[in-house]
Every structure is written in C-alpha cells, then in structure tokens.
Design a protein that fits this description.
seven-stranded mixed β-sheet; Rossmann fold; six-stranded mixed β-sheet; homodimer; alpha/beta
Chain lengths: ~325, ~325
Amino acid sequence: MKKVNVAIVGATGAVGQEMLRILDQRSFPVDHLRLFASRNSAGARIPFRGTDTIVEDLEQADFAGVDVALFSTGAELAALHGPRAAKAGALVVDNSTAFRTDDAIPLVVPEVNGHLLAARPPIVANPNCCAIPLVQVLAVLHRLAGLERVLVSTYQSVSGTGKEAMEELRRQSVSHLAGEDDPPQVYPRPIAFNCFPHVDAFTENGYTREELKVAQESRKILGLPDLRMSATCVRIPVFRSHSESVTVEMRRPVTPGEAREALRGAAGIEVWDDPSRLHYPTPRDAEGGDSTLVGRIREDLSQPGAICLWLCSDNLRKGAALNAVQIAEHVLSS
Amino acid sequence: MKKVNVAIVGATGAVGQEMLRILDQRSFPVDHLRLFASRNSAGARIPFRGTDTIVEDLEQADFAGVDVALFSTGAELAALHGPRAAKAGALVVDNSTAFRTDDAIPLVVPEVNGHLLAARPPIVANPNCCAIPLVQVLAVLHRLAGLERVLVSTYQSVSGTGKEAMEELRRQSVSHLAGEDDPPQVYPRPIAFNCFPHVDAFTENGYTREELKVAQESRKILGLPDLRMSATCVRIPVFRSHSESVTVEMRRPVTPGEAREALRGAAGIEVWDDPSRLHYPTPRDAEGGDSTLVGRIREDLSQPGAICLWLCSDNLRKGAALNAVQIAEHVLSS
C-alpha cells in the first residue's frame, strides 16, 4: 500500500488511543499523521513511532490533504465534521452512531460485508461494539444454515463508555474494598462489584438504544432486514472486552460440531471450545487481541437444532478501532 | 409457632452464617440452637441472640432432640448426615444437590409449591440459587399464560461459591488494581474484572451442571417436566446477589403490562420497572433483602407475545438461607 496521510479525530479518547496503537502494530502506511480533539485537549503532544504529534482543535480543522480520517467522537461532532472531511477528499471511517442507520452509507465489518467498500464510499460507518463480533459469528452461521432468530444477552466492559468510566470503576472498586462509599458520577448506578441492564438511553418500547442498535445494525450488516432479533445489554465490572451469550435459531437444524467447524475456518474468529480442558474465552483472554473468541458452542436444549454459544471480543479493538483501521486497509488495498 | 430446637449444619459457611442472621431477623422461635461444622471448625464460638454457641463436630453429631435441621454442606455430607437427622426426628431442609432430583423428596419454593409441605416430608430439598428466583417469576407467568419455553443467561456472584471465593475476588481485585498478578486458587480463571461461562463442572453435552440444574430443578418445582428450557451460567465479579436475563415464551401472547401486573401481586416479588426513572434492579439493590426484584419487562422483539425480563435476588438469602428458613416456617405453622 502506498503511504497515506491519516487523521485521527477524537485522538485522546480510549478508542482514539487504541487507533494509534493499531496503526503502529499493523505497520499501517502512515505518511503524515494529524490528531484532532476538542479545544481542551488541543496542544497536547502524543507520541507515534518516535515522533510527537501536537493535537489540533477539531473545530478549526482543515482536512485538506488528509487521505484517511478515522473518527471516534460523539455522533454530533461526527455529523458536523465527517462530511467536511469527506468533502476535502478523505475516506471517513466513523465510529459514532451518526451515519450507521443512513441507507446511503455502508455499515461495514470487512469479514462480513467488505464487498461494499469496492464502491469507494466517501463515508463508511463503523458498527456498534457488540454488533461487530456478533455479526462475525452470525454471518458464518447464516451461510451454514440460514438465520431465523437471534437472542443475545451481553456482558459489557466499562471501556465502551470511555476513559472516565474506567476511572470510575477503578476508583469505586478501591473505595468499596475499603468499606467506603463512592457515589457514581459517570454511570447511573454503582459499577464496582455490581452490574446493571442499562447501556445507553432507554427508548419508548422499554429497550435501550444499545439493545436496539445491536439488532438493527446486525440486520443491516448481514443484509437481513427481517431477521428476528432481541438483545439485553448489561454493563459488568470489567475494564475491557465485551462478552455475549447468544442463542441462534436457523432454517435447518445444525449440530454443535457443524457450527464449530464452520466457525473454525472463519476470518477474525478463533474457536476456544474444549470444556474438558476448561477451554473457553473470557474477557481477559480477548483483551489486546484481534480475534473474536467463540466457545461454549452447544445445542440449545430448549430447541433441538438451535445453537447456544458464548463470545468475547476486545471492544476497543475489533469492536471499534481495529475494525475501523481494517475498513481503511480494505479500501486502500482494493 | 411453638419454640423448636434448631440445628444449623455447615454453620460456619456463607449460607450457614446467613441462616443464623435470618433466624434472628425473622424472630424464628428458636428454643435450643445447635451448630455443626467440620472438625476444623469445631470448638469455635458463634454468637446468636446474645449467647455464644459452641460449634460441634458434624461427624460426631447426635441429632436427638433436634426439631429442625437446616443443612448447608456439600452433597456428600448431606447424603451421609441428612437421613440420620431425619431418622432422629428432625425436619431436614437441605441446601445441597444431594436430594434435589430424588423423586421421593420435594424440592420447594414455598410461594410456588409450598403445598407439598402439607405431607410433612422428613427431608425437603432447597433448590439451586438461580432456580429459586427464576421459578418465582415463571410460576406467575405460567398461571398467566402457560409456559412454553424459557431461555436464561445468568450473572452470578461469587458468594454462591462460598467465603473463599469472596476472599479471592477481594484479593485479586486489590492485586489487579495495584498492577500485580494474583493467580486464581478457587476459580479456574481470574475473577477480578473478568467473567467466565463456567459455574460448576462441565458435563458431556457441553453444559455445566449448574446450567442443567437450573433447567431440571425449575421443571420439578413448577411441575412441568416437559418445559423447554436452556441456561447459560456465567460468574461475574460481584460479591453478592445473582442476576438473570430471561426470555419467556408462553402459550398465548402476553403484553409487558399484563406480565408486570401479574408479577406485582406475587408474594416474594417486587417489580422495579420504570425505565423513565431509571428504575430497574441491580445486584446491590437485592443484597440483604428478601424479595426477588424484577425489571426490564418488555416484549421480546424477536417473538411477538413473548417476554424478556431481568431479575436480581440475594443468592445467600432467597437463593439459599431464606428459602430454607421459609420452608421450615411453612411446615411449623401448618
């Protein structure tokens, strides 16, 4: 790949920092690097491959000359500045919700629907951190036997919320172990040694936006607008990596062996599934890695031929930064 | 109720200690109290209502004169000593798995199948800590519309494993926050800031014994041997109270409003379900309380007429000690 000028927008956040690490780890052909953040962070110096880059104020950003802009800001800022960067000629990969449900903008997990990138869209949306690993698995099972219905309960780490949430978990854990009270600031409830079924805001039908996103985005990425799907999204006191308990009903009955075999050959997936050796994934195993780890693949005892499984994936990497960088790589190398 | 002689077998464990607290809190009519544990703990003094009781060696136990024996030991010890206590004339309420699947022995959650106690069985089995709150909810929905299929993913606290597991979570959390390594001793994997889909031993079909217990025991308690049911049981870094994400399919479609209304009137259940006020249960809310808290009651978006919900219940209380004491109360007052 020829060298390109890369901008990271939201460079000081948890995902922005992970994007930098991943560009380096993958030897991404960065020519000139530019980093953008809110005015508060402007002027900070962030090292990359031995050189410090000074963070620029996003509001004043001139994207001229940028080839690839990796956005990891809130949806409002992405909606404001993403199209500006695209107009200036950059390939925009946006990690927010701003463009995900826009029919004109592809929502991409390269292993699943990377073919959409052949059209070189100016803006590509990066999916929700629970939807990405889930569709990696679902795409395989769909090819195998045709998806009919998916139920998922999540076990989500606090890094999905950001650095302040990680700090809140750390601080509250210390306080709780010391027998002291430490009222929540980032979250609506204590997160240390607790969990809550509340990720993102509640909507009118009693579901949270996160729960609806997991279903809606999975349908869009898989190209299955009528897939029957329901999610329960739960925050647990884990710093990093999301886990999911998934039940999948398919058009034809599938054995655990068949499902395991199909998943074993899939890009981006590692099957960790040998209970006799206590081999199954945990969030800590997925942390820092590139693969979505899948285990506990077994028959749904309530529905012969359906499959239950468990997956873990680093929400900052494949669930966010890695998938974004992979989208850029896919476009550049095609 | 007339005063009775009570024995707690396994008095020094997490559940045994909670039994003592509950006897006191509920003004249980204890005449003479006897405490049993392994030889290691024999001789220890445990206070109850202002008096110390000396722990006796279970192996040497003579149960003569004991009216109610609350067992909270492993299954082997329960199988050995439970029948001895029953033969000596005690009502045995056993918290282990020793008698749960025995057709001749009732498995009881008083709110659900307390009528089985009218026959004054010599031994009553106390169900699994996840099954108890689950069947409280399922019994209500069964009366409402007839259960067809139940899927559950659990979020289980470490106190279900015992005191050493609570200590392991505490110690590992401190180490992890200090950046130090602390290899697991009680659990197969690190539990601090992690989770794993592994509760109790694995069986041949890929399910853990815990997952099979949840289904088998629920069927027995509900008197529905053919209920289609599957569970995924996950340990999370919470000290106390288990949570469950549950999907329930019924013979006739049920609205969330109907389900909520039916659950609101049920003994032992509190409905905490007003997302607009961020009102939903968490493990910390359930801790120390007697009720199973139910929230997030909503339509299963993948199956119209089915219901998704979330519950939290103190696994040491309703999930173990409280239910056992309630069984004894039920027998004594009938």
